[in-house]
Amino acid sequence: MPKDAPNVVWIILDDVGFGASATFGGLIKTPNFDTLANQGLRYTNFHTAGICAPTRASLLTGRNHHYVHEGGFSHVRMSAGFPGYDGRIPADKGTVAEILRENGYNTFAVGKYGLTPDEDATDAGPFDRWPLGKGFDHFFGFLGSATDQYKPDLVEDNAHVKPDGRHLNEQITDKAISFLNRQHKAAPDKPFFLYYAPGATHSPHQVATEWSNLYKGQFDSGWDDFREKVIERQKKLGIIPAYAKLPERNTRIPAWSSLKPEERKLYARFMEVYAGYLTYTDQEVGRLIGHLKQSGQLDNTLVFVIIGDNGASKEGTVYGTIDAQNSARTATEEAYLKKNLEDIDDIGTPEAAANYPLGWAQAANTPFKYWKQDANSEGGTRNPLIVFYPKGIKDKGAIRNQYGHVIDVLPTTLEYIGIKLPEYIRGIKQDTLQGTSLVYSFNDAKAPSKHNLQHFYIFGARSVYNNGWKAEAAHHPDNVELGNFKAGQTIADQSFDEDIWELYNLTTDFNERTDLAKKNLEKLKELKALFEIQAKKNNVYPFIDWYDVYNQRLHQNYIK
């Protein structure tokens, strides 16, 4: 371990769109993220995998998600027969916790883990795929992809424990501070790694009314107005190019002006709750950062904040959800809306499992198209990144536009600390990392991107980026969210060969407004060939479509 090695904190939120937080131009107040960004760096061209478990597997290992067998979910085997989808991270692809622990760090994790198979997640184990089996000294949080914020499926270390009734964000922050306090008293010179991963802002959207009521009336002008305001704020802040224009509103989303007054009231309340949920999460992060400052540890702590593990979620359906039993699968549109209006006061409370309507997902993803799960689109995969380190960030408050991906965070951390990937971890020879360190860009805004090739694949949606160009194919593009399918209805089979490929030059068209596929067939052919190479190298084949799984199972238990 290098002398005076910094502490390391990774913070990753859940289901937050690029344009939600005020820190990146949104209308939802995130003052603690603002402070970290204003004293650190904002990365505006950073990417996730497009859905939770793949993003987290890539982040923790520094490798592409199919390459570490996380093509879908750990808690649902997409396929037992193919390595890209079995949901079991191999031991030769060690996690950041294993690597840093080998180098003298204490390692802690709180919040969402999401990488433990369901059949292993009982108090009988086995525990090798629990956080402690993957390098963490202590863990407090939940193993699955989502949980109730007041009645979480809570785990501490290798056992389930009873929640105390407080909001999960408060509990995990208290526990993180407790872990850090105990270590600091026992060994003040020993560095720590903390992985802080709240379940927020994944559904269910739950938060005390003191937070949601902060936004009373602030979204009455609707999602179209939200998008217009956000894109102008983003341009003013320099987050996006000055030439930027909004993509067209998705055809599934009604114009706000066309809605009835009672619909506007209902939909605005969904967003008030969501906004309060995000602001409260920011406050809890601020409490953690405040503890580090008060204890004299912050100046030597390298902090990464990833605002969302994918784009904003489309899983609330076109109309929003309050009660899982009242869905578009089980009721007519009229009855569904009527019940939601009757239950409007439950939104955000422990009695509801709320998720906002699709219109707010598009608004939260401003200025991009589409949303979570859509690995073809920047709206599904582009998330804000903040890098903060008082000792080492000279260009405080600056913006960085270099291309990045979650696989880059681990190699960035290792290079900055001065640690090399161990050749062996617990006797197992380690595979190489696939990410590209971003350290080269810390003090050079004009440094050309070093991460120049990246593929994406989630549930059939796929794309490949190379040196500013991007080819992409949506799969089942009209099936915007599973929750809108009626009881007994299946999703029509769609051959992957039928998918339509699009081509974008992100250097001049960063938010994918102008499809160049017909004008530049050679470039499209070149990128499709690159995707094939990456797909074969990284265990993406055979393509497995989540909608095929959906046709066999009720999706509510699995789509997280």
TrEMBL record:
Range of residues in the leader sequence: none
CDD domains with a match to the protein in the record: PAS_like
SUPFAM superfamilies: Alkaline phosphatase-like
Domain of life: Bacteria
Keywords: Calcium, Hydrolase, Metal-binding
Gene Ontology molecular function: any one: hydrolase activity
Pfam families assigned: Sulfatase
Annotated InterPro entries: Alkaline_phosphatase_core_sf (IPR017850), Sulfatase (IPR050738), Sulfatase_CS (IPR024607), Sulfatase_N (IPR000917)
Ranges of residues in domain Sulfatase N-terminal: 6-419
Entry similarity comment: Belongs to the sulfatase family.
Protein name, UniProt field: Arylsulfatase
